[in-house]
Amino acid sequence: MKIKLELFGASRDFSNKDYLEFSLKEKSSIKDLRTEILNFVENNFKGNDNYKKLVQSSAFCSEENNIVSDNYKITKEQNIGIIPPIGGG
Amino acid sequence: MLHTKIIDLTKEKIEIVNAEKFIASSKCGASIYFVGTVRDLNNDKKVTGITYDSHDALVIKSFEEIYQESQGKFKFENSAVFIEHVKGHVKLGETSIIIAVACKHRAQAYDLSRFIIEEIKKRTPIWKKEHYENKDSEWLKGNPIKSS
Fold first, then answer.
1. CB contact under 8 A, A69 and B147
2. What are the pLDDT digits (tens) for A14-70?
3. The pTM is what?
4. Shortest CA distance from A67: residue in chain B
5. Which of B43, B66, B74 has the alpha carbon at shortest distance from B118?
């Protein structure tokens, strides 16, 4: 199952594009997706500690624009947004 | 009465005249305009500009939720709220956000305006990348959002 991870804020430094793509097993959760992103950071940025902390402190947003917990089951191919700690205004 | 919008600076400008038009009402005796601008110094670094990033759909949803909560909390009659936030690059001194409120009385307008900006700071998914005089830039650390 392919997941397109839309990048926002500091996570934009993960790629020159606006997104990353991950292949997840059926019935994966946000927790599994977070683990995949941490693996991506390990492999592509030599385990950059700041990037790992960023992933660990980020929330995730479903295609329906809801902030979802680590237990949220991803039941179909979809776009998911990574929401790093925020600070606008 | 609520107006919300993300202003994409590559396409349009953020302008206070739009806020003035929206909140104008003879039922209200007090108007407050909060205008956020880019400051020249942060953490002892000389700032030349900020790039704002936004999850547009979530931002609008968050503005609407904050407005609904404010209506439940304050129960003011005939209030008007205008919220616009930019995305893209903002130079020193330029505007990043306008919150305009109109209420019957001044105390209500101050309370409502303050509530809205403080809630936006806590929970609206907007990010800042500061640019400095020495050409460095960095994403500012923020507050984590939790799932409900």
1. yes
2. 999 999 999 999 889 999 999 999 999 999 999 899 999 999 999 999 999 999 999
3. 0.94
4. B147
5. B66
